[in-house]
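Private note to self, pasted from the team thread so I don't lose it. Backbone tokens:
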């Protein structure tokens, strides 16, 4: 997740007696990472984990999660309907994505994305009223999704790390797809036009993306801009894609939920 120089700087500040929160503020490292480095140092364990279960962000030379397209899609799902929380086991976290039962195909796509990113970790499902909780356990979810934090996403800053930005720049379609599959929809809009001969109704498809977080909405519209897809804000918390050409572009890689 962080390079060796950043890690070494954090360890030096720890040795000086600075609290974890202050070090996090000074150098922009998550408190989780600092606590993990301190714990591993105190226990004489290696600072980086090797083997097939290794996190691509925790190796001495961090790499990008693979496959990148699946990661961009899962990032969209997480930013929309996902959360990461601690478990009762030390250092283990759970990533949950809530999927409505009305869209069984979406649940399957979510499972496949989780399995692609952490193939050594089992994916489970907990049935809720009207929805399913698709979940996976790993000690590395905060490394893979540094947006992890306490509280609702719209009440805190959501900003991509540079390596995440690199992925979504390469795969903006998959980020948009994941965001729409979580907090978006494709609907038929009906418009009434008064004519001299009487009222006439028109129908046309459009996409809506609704999210209370300004930061997440900006990530969505930035990806649309990268794809040259025209959009507008129909409400303060809603992004609308309604032009025929723009809807056709989204239909090529998003389409309706199923």
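Design output:
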């Amino acid at each position: 997740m962080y390079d060796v120089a950043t890690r070494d700087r954090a360890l030096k500040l720890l040795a000086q007696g600075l609290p974890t929160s202050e070090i996090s503020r000074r150098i922009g490292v998550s408190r989780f990472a600092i606590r993990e480095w301190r714990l591993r140092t105190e226990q004489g364990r290696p600072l980086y984990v090797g083997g097939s279960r290794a996190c691509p962000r925790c190796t001495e030379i961090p790499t990008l999660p693979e496959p990148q397209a699946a990661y961009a899609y899962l990032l969209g799902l997480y930013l929309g309907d996902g959360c990461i929380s601690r478990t009762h086991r030390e250092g283990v976290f759970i990533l949950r994505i809530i999927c409505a039962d009305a869209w069984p195909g979406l649940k399957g796509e979510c499972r496949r994305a989780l399995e692609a990113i952490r193939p050594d970790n089992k994916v489970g499902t907990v049935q809720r009223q009207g929805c399913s909780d698709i979940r996976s356990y790993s000690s590395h979810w905060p490394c893979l999704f540094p947006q992890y934090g306490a509280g609702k996403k719209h009440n805190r800053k959501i900003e991509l790390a540079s390596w995440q930005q690199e992925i979504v720049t390469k795969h903006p379609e998959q980020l948009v797809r994941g965001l729409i599959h979580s907090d978006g929809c494709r609907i038929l809009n009906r418009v009434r036009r008064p004519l001299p001969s009487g009222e006439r109704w028109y129908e046309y498809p459009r996409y809506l993306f609704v999210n209370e977080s300004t930061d997440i909405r900006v990530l969505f519209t930035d990806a649309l801009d990268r794809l040259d897809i025209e959009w507008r804000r129909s409400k303060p918390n809603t992004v609308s894609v309604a032009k025929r050409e723009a809807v056709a572009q989204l239909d090529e890689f998003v389409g309706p939920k199923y």
